[in-house]
Amino acid sequence: MNPPPPTARRRPLLVWTTALAMVMAVAGLVTMRPPAAEATPTGFAYRCGVNFCLDGKKFYFAGANTYDLFTYGSASGDTETQYMDKSRIDAQFARLQADKVTVLRTWLFNHESWHGFETEKGVYNEQQFALFDYIIQSAKNHGVKLLPVFENYWEAYGGVDTRLRWEGLSGGHPARAAFFDKTRCSGCFTSYKNYVGYVLNRTNHYSGLKYKDDPTIFAWELMNEPRYQGVSAEENQSGVTLRAWVDEMGAFVKGIDPDHMLGTGLEAHETRYGFGGDEGNPFVYIHQSPYIDFTSAHPYPTEDWAALTIAQTQELVRTWIRESHEIVGKPFYMGEFNVHNVDRTQWWNAIFQAFEDAGGDGTGFWWYQDRGIDGKFGVSQGAPELAAFRAHSDRQAAKNGTAPSPSASPSASPSASPSASPSASPSASPSPSPSPSASPSTDPTACTVTYRLSDWGHSFNADVTIRNNGTSAVDGWTLTFSFPGGQTINSIWNARATQSGRQVTAVNESWTATVPAGGTVNFGLNGNSSPGTNGVPTAFTLNGTTCAKAS
Predict the structure, then answer these.
(1) In angstroms, rounded to a whole number, what is the distance separating the alpha carbons of residues 25 and 29?
(2) Which helix (H) or strand (E) holds 455?
């Protein structure tokens, strides 16, 4: 949640009618958890095309925010019996479980002296992290997955203002934009990375698992509502500086933790939506980062600066989902939302209807409180709107258990430059589809393979998209290629693979077997490597036919 954006003002809602099918495929590298990986923990959520998946099946969810879990306890005295309040934590998770909250977004940041995780630069509070250890354990015991947020753009609990102060700079909006500019605050980059690295490598003293190895974590978010606003009119629309920060921090996170998904925490304000202003964080371009696994938005339609009707809010939600799935090529997470001074149940039902009809992937209302703290947006157990939420949760869960569709989205690739608005591009012209052959043939018009590499030296991830350029579907496929060096596969998802020396043979899973005419299928892999040896394979053969290689 955030204060009203300074540049926000009411505008007519822009309704997109442009055909978005087969638009520019610009989502970036996917770093996903495989459905099942040998010798690694099971139960990780991961991205599969434009959906979330869990254990090889689609995963739709209804969630909430309880940002203040980290404050449950006296923050003094004995760690296990006083500093943290285990009974209060357990009671809150029991309420969340009873109201069918599947994923809970929560804060994993605080620079204040009371319940601070990092109250001084580089000094991490062991008692506070021990409390968060218990939050993870209680979530696991109650069947709730967590989405922790690493830092706050806003001033609550210190946020980036504190990191700026540590470097001798002033904060406040919009001065805190300096946090995202390495030329102005290189120390901010270092302190943020140091903290995130500590979090990911933290060993939970109850489970013995490092945070990066715990499937109770659904995903991480880089920051609550980041923006690079007010520096220049050009930056407000382009988002170049924030995108560079997201790319650098995303690569850092994935280098330590390739197993969990990563989000931005974005609000999705833009003038073109008629919702908020241009704030240096354009929805499409920022989420096209190759290190980000899903998009996010935080609609508060009844705020004075928004002033949207129910119908306008529904169209806004549909637009976000459409752009997320068809342009960015990633799942959509409505990470915060709520209304006030209206019939909340009526509004929630309308929002849920639009969200579900458009195929939205996950929600998280703001916020589920355990006592009467917030009279504006706080939702307590027994609130009438929770009946609407539980029904929504049941409908989301009813869609789970199905295998992911192989052609749910266009292929994903990072964009070279920001785009102010989505635009369509022509689809590939039809040509004969590939078919198995006893010996390799060459028909680069039959198929195209895009191989997106994320290289971290000793490890790497690859996202592979196969496009069928033909006029008939491919039913069952085998893709062969050779690594450029001594790479070895650790895990693979949405396909099965064997490796002989440098040569890799990838075969479809049951849910990725069909590649429709003009459609795509996607799989990914994680592996070990030696620094300087990674690269994109030079050739790909699909069912005996050599495919074109996308640049």
Answers:
(1) 12
(2) strand 447-455
Q: Are strands 362-365 and 61-65 parallel, antiparallel or unpaired?
A: parallel
Question: Using CA atoms, how far apart are residues 338 and 300, in angstroms rounded to an integer?
Answer: 6
**241, 200 in Cβ contact below 8 A?**
no
Which secondary structure element, helix H or strand E, spans residue 124, and what is its range? strand 123-124
Helix (H) / strand (E) element for 460: namely: strand 459-468
Distances (CA, A) of 523 to 310, 448, 489, 543: 38, 14, 13, 16
Contact 223, 265 (CB under 8 A): yes
Question: H or E element: which one contains 362?
Answer: strand 362-365
Place of tokens 């592979």: 464
Give the amino acid at 420. A
Answer with the residue of higher pLDDT: 92 or 460: 92
176, burial (CB in 10 Å: exposed 0-12, middle 13-18, buried 19+): buried
284/295 Cα distance (integer angstroms): 8
d(CA 89, CA 94): 9
The residue-averaged pLDDT of 374-388 equals: 97
> What does the pLDDT look like over 328-372, one tens digit per residue?
999 999 999 999 999 999 999 999 999 999 999 999 999 999 999
Peptide bond into 299 cis (omega under 30): no
The per-residue pLDDT for 37 is: 34
Q: How far apart are CA 295 and CA 288, in angstroms?
A: 9
CB 47 within 8 A of CB 331: yes
Distance of CA 6 to the CA centre of its chain: 26
Contact between residue 418 and residue 457 where contact means Cβ atoms under 8 Å apart: no
Contacts 24+ apart (CB under 8 A), 307-314: 307/10, 308/13, 308/274, 308/275, 310/346, 310/347, 310/350, 312/13, 312/274, 313/347, 313/350, 313/351, 313/354, 314/350, 314/351, 314/353, 314/354
Name the residue with tokens 């280098």.
255
Which pLDDT score is estimated for 256? 96
